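Work Package 3 (structural annotation) set out to generate three-dimensional models for the target panel prioritized at the project kickoff. During this period the team completed the workflow that converts sequence records into discrete structure tokens, so that structures can be stored uniformly alongside our sequence database. As a representative example, we reproduce one entry of 467 residues exactly as it appears in the project archive.
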Amino acid sequence: MAGRTTIRPALISLPRHSENQVFGILDAVTNTIFANANAPASETPAVDATTPDRSGRMIQLDVLRGVAILLVLASHRIADPPAAAGWLGRAALWVACAGWTGVDLFFVLSGFLIGGLLLSEFQARGHIDLSRFVVRRIFKIWPGYYLLVLTMLVVNAHGRWAWAWHIYWPNLLNVQNYIVRDTRIGQTWSLGVEEHFYIALPLVFWALLRVGSRARPLTALPWIAIVVVLGCNMIRWIECNHQPYSVPAHQFPTHLRMDSLAFGVLLAYWYHFHPRTLARIAQRRWILLILGFTLVAPMTLNAITWPFIWTIGYTMLYLGYGGILVAAVFTPVGPDGGWWGICFRSRLARALATVGIYSYSIYLWHYGLLRDAIALIVPRAMPQNALLQWIMGSVLYVGLSIAAGIVMAKLVEFPALALRERLFPRRSTHLSIPHRRNPTEAAAPTLELVGLIQSHRRPQHLPMLDR
């Protein structure tokens, strides 16, 4: 129907040869996720897990985004409880230790979703319009990001424009994860990593499409991803032996962190070109969850300065979050998904999903000026009680960060996405699934996926949504 977002399932051809079991596991993570998490963030989250709504969103993905951004908020505010906080302070410290891993969850999602967009276009059209891909990414990332940078530049310049340029040129050129000048927008280091990824990945696809075989030009993609994973691990070990830990040197650089994104791309490849394994892996949801949380847990119990964390720990994080991602996406919302499927239908899940929709703008605006304002106002309101200052400051910080992200998304991010869709609309040859009014018809994709999981077979059409 005119003016309505349509859902386009990808038509996936199954390779005839069997796959190695290790790659089969990697295979699984990719499938349903990435189409939906990339839908324009202005739309409301889907209620059904495997049946995206007309907005093209899946609630599992938005819940994961909501968890990721709340972890980041916790790590940036709750990390300094007063001594009077007692057991509450100890719990807050644990939350803060776990909080920094939220960025790694974002990295895995980004690699999976962005790599999946390119792969789905190749499957649908037989080629990839890389320049169009880059332009669409610019409309998504740059408006909010550069508004933030320019706002900080103007606020802090006080007429000293030469000084302001010296401080902010790394952010303007997207090398802020290598040259850190203003820590009040220090959260943008991860956007530098992703920006470099958005440049490198299209170049890799361009090279493969030019030099690869005509029949299967992207065959080398998983091997390139594996090389990146191994290379980043090797470099981290070398860095570990040559200099003591510091955040700018060991956490920010692209060459030390891009393996999280490469792993997401690897998952996307196995989903698109070897989807049968997804059905087998989806049956083992408990194993995926236990394995995922087991891999993530050590990083939440120790300080990030522990060498194990900033070497092999980064690898464990994206492996663990990948397992959790697969388990979440292949959990039907409601009783068919067991206790976790019921949780996805809860009000808490819907609240997390709502936060997840605005996660990019929240991430941009939660730091810097907002922290400074709370640090200035709260002590004056409660001058004699450090514990109340910390509690009130934390509550205000989380609440105002979410509110600021929602406002800026509606003012900047969503209008930019709407303009992008008018100027550079999605290209797809996928068949549309019209909106169904009959509840039985609306449940059909969910029933199809449940049947797939139970029978180990692949359906002819899997729900697949673009951003």
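Strands lie at 10-11, 461-462.
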